[in-house]
Amino acid sequence: MSRNTAKPWFAPKRYGYGSGLPIAWQGWVVFLAYIVVCAGAASALPLMLDNTALSGWAPLAIISTATIILVIICARKTKGGWRWRWGKDE
User: For the whole model, what pTM was predicted?
Assistant: First the structure.
């Protein structure tokens, strides 16, 4: 991913590939919204399973979509972009 010059929302991981914890309030809002959406979808699963056999897929679709959106936002808003890191200070 390209490096973003705007203020980053997430810290890079020290080891490996990806984002660490949020470092700005915007990152915390995105992270907490993701948790709320996933918890809401998971709590609705038993209610949906009682109605029809296929409605159990709705929470999975919601959680999958929310995860894809979170990954895209994290990749674009991580300090220094996503790349492999070996734990050295940069």
Answer: 0.78
